[in-house]
Design goal:
Radius of gyration: 18 Å
Structural class: alpha+beta
CATH architecture: Roll
CATH topology: SH3 type barrels
Strand order of the largest sheet: 4-3-2-1-5
Largest sheet: 5 strands, antiparallel
Order of helices and strands: HEEHHEEE
Distance between the termini: 61 Å
Strand content: 25-35%
Number of helices: 3
CATH class: Mainly Beta
Oligomer: single chain
Length: about 140
Amino acid sequence: MTENPSAPTVVEPISDVYLQSLIMILNEVGDEARMSSIVLQTAGGMVRGTLISFSAWTKAWGDQLRAASGNAAPLVAELDQWIDNAYAELNAEHGDCPSDGLPSYLHLADVTIVLPDGNKLTAPLWRGPVHAVTGWTLGQAARAD
């Protein structure tokens, strides 16, 4: 069988092992784990906030979902139970990490998103894939004059 030279090559995204190590440490500490502020550069803009553990994000996201449910509370309760069950199954297999043991996602609280056009959005929580981060720094970013 001959190879097709015009076939596209699939390249797996590469994640920053230093960032993954920070996330892994936070995830091991648990529910109340928070790191100082972090600034992330992504293709969609800059994201800044407080790096938190997966379990802290999961708890805060569940609280946020329940608070926003209003008259959909019975559906949210079902969703909440389904998510808890699915998470328990996934966590039993490999936690929030793929087979290499490094985290695939990072979680932020108290988030500001700066879009490429300079507009800013705020959000209480943010979750994104580590491989989508093109650069990062710990601490607050300040305007350089």
